[in-house]
Amino acid sequence: MAARNVALQESENGLPERAGGWKILHVDLSQIGAVALEPGYQGLYLCFWHERRPLGHHELLAGELPLSHAQVRDIAVRAIARAVFRKLADGDVPGALDADGCAVPGLLPRLSEAWRREEASFQSQNVSLVICTRDRPDRLRRCLESVAALSFQAAEIIVVDNGSRREATRRKLLEAAGQMIGKYGFAGCTIARVTARARIAHGTFYLHFQSQQEMFEELLREMSLRMLEHVRDAVHECGSLVELERRGLEANHDFFCRYPFMARLTQEAELYSPVSYTAHIDAMANGYVRALARKRAGTVLEGWSHAQLEQLAVMLIGARSQIMRRYGVAGHKVVPLSPDVIDTYIRFISNGILAGLDKPAADRTEGAQAPTGERD
Question: What are the DSSP calls for 188-209, one per residue?
């Protein structure tokens, strides 16, 4: 059988991302054949399957290839032996797996019968499936599709977010980067300082970020998402636009108090990370527009277009930003926001640009200004 007919499928990472990569080949035991390896790979990783069940694997260096049908068959025998011993407790299993490999075809029906007995036992009991994953939506989707295709139905499917040590290390680096930006600014936030603060080896940094710039962009993106979620939770049940503004400003300042480096991060990001800063402002504006849209029913905002709501949102974001810079930050340190400042801002909002927005539009027509040509 030609090598190309051996594989059920090749890994999605089959092509090497760089010189010296490995190729993954999935082999059905009923379709064993010769295998070869294209130039540019360090080796081949064989995964042996039977009726969609993995039974074993074997690694081959490029210098060991190509292999004939008989050689691949012998490797398969050794690779699946342990799994087969566990599955087939009755009969002379070890003898059936002698190195001549002739017994492999006769073994497959016995495995199929074992699978059927296993599936029958599942039918008589409740089975819970636990799927561990993190930030791998495509693989999770494929996993769930495989579960749906099983011959038995699970009583429950539990997806567990089990963040790895790699993710924990990445978060430590980002937290350290935020602290260094708060203390030294973007210019002084060097990789050496970040890794020293996180107590992580300098070289480990490059397992998580390709560059200092990528770290800056990821930090701003993550902190932007956290801040938006924090503010959204604070204003979610506001009964009026004025209340929305008060709670929004207070939540904004509260987040800065929790993460003091946010003040300097947002002040300097426009210069050092302009793309991420623009995305941050866009996300804030979009969130603001959604909040305004939820409160516009029965007010003069009811007839406003999306573009007009966005314009208002940008104006209010600008006002909040300047209040934070002028009264909420001293140097690069976050300070308490005076209640007088908040009250003055709310008076400006309620008696100025948002005057009457909580009233029905019909009530506003009496106070509308007459056209210029009709003034006294």
Answer: H--HHHHHHHHT--GGGGGGT-
Looking at the 3D structure of the chain, how many domains does it have? 4
User: What CATH code is carried by the domain that includes residue 188?
Assistant: 1.10.10
Residue 9 has pLDDT above 50, yes or no: no
Let me know whether 320 and 262 are in one domain: yes
HEC string for 63-77: HHCCECHHHHHHHHH
Rounded distance, CA 177 to CA 69, Å? Answer: 55
Q: What is the CATH number of the domain that holds 227?
A: 1.10.357
Side chain identity, residue 140: L
Locate 229 and state its tokens: 């979620």
| pLDDT exceeds 70 at position 4 | no
Q: Does 58 share its domain with 151?
A: no
Beta-carbon contacts of 161 under 8 Å, excluding residues fewer than 6 positions away, are: 133, 134
Count other Cβ atoms within 10 Å, centred on residue 313: 20
Residue 11 CB contacts under 8 Å (≥ 6 apart), including other chains: 23, 24, 25, 26
Question: pLDDT tens-digit profile of 53-85?
Answer: 888 888 888 888 899 988 998 888 888 877 776
| 100-128: pLDDT as tens digits | 444 566 677 777 777 777 666 655 566 77
Domain that holds residue 202: 165-209
Measured in Å, how far apart are the chain's first and last C-alpha atoms? 98
Contact 316, 288 (CB under 8 A): yes
Q: Regarding beta strands 41-50 and 21-28, do their DSSP bridges make them parallel or antiparallel, or are they unpaired? A: parallel
Q: Contact at 8 Å (CB) between 101 and 74?
A: yes
Query: DSSP letter at 207?
Result: G
Q: Which residue has the higher pLDDT, 365 or 207?
A: 207
Q: How many CA atoms lie within 13 A of 238 on its CB side?
A: 24
How many CB atoms within 10 Å of residue 190? 12
CA atoms of 307 and 318, how far apart (whole Å): 17
Residue 374 lies in a domain: no
Burial 210-231 (b: 16+ CB within 10 A, else e): eebeebbbbbbeebbeebbeeb
Which tens digit of pLDDT belongs to each residue from 190-242? 999 999 999 998 888 988 888 999 999 999 999 998 998 888 888 877 777 78
Q: Is the pLDDT of residue 301 over 50?
A: yes
